[in-house]
Amino acid sequence: MASDQGRRREKMTNYLADTPVVARGYCPGCEPATDPDVERVSVQYCEDHRPSMVGCEDAKVVAATYLSGSAEVGGDANRAFCDFVHRGVLRVRE
Predict the structure, then answer these.
(1) Which side of the chain, N or C, has fewer Cβ within a 10 Å radius?
(2) Distance CA 24, CA 42 (A)
(3) CA 32 to CA 40: how far, in whole Å?
(4) Which residue, among 87, 88, 67, has the nearest Cα to 79 in the 3D structure?
(5) CB atoms within 10 A of CB 34
(6) Phi, psi (5° rounding) for residue 55?
(7) By C-alpha distance, which of 41, 35, 37 is closest to 23?
């Protein structure tokens, strides 16, 4: 530690520095001949080739309730096991 006293301490940061992007963006609809095995590319669709966000199956899904909280499948078994593990321990006096 004595040798560290003369050194200037650098301030540590809690964020990551930006890293350079090594892949170029491309749209598969505009550049169908681009081979991702040969070149580093990142898929970035243009407005003309953007995939639809609405599918034919979306209308079949009906969500009548909003589930939230800690409900889970098998929660009763988990609760019983948790109660067993965290039970109070009775000590027997001799």
Answers:
(1) C
(2) 6
(3) 15
(4) 87
(5) 14
(6) -110, 165
(7) 41
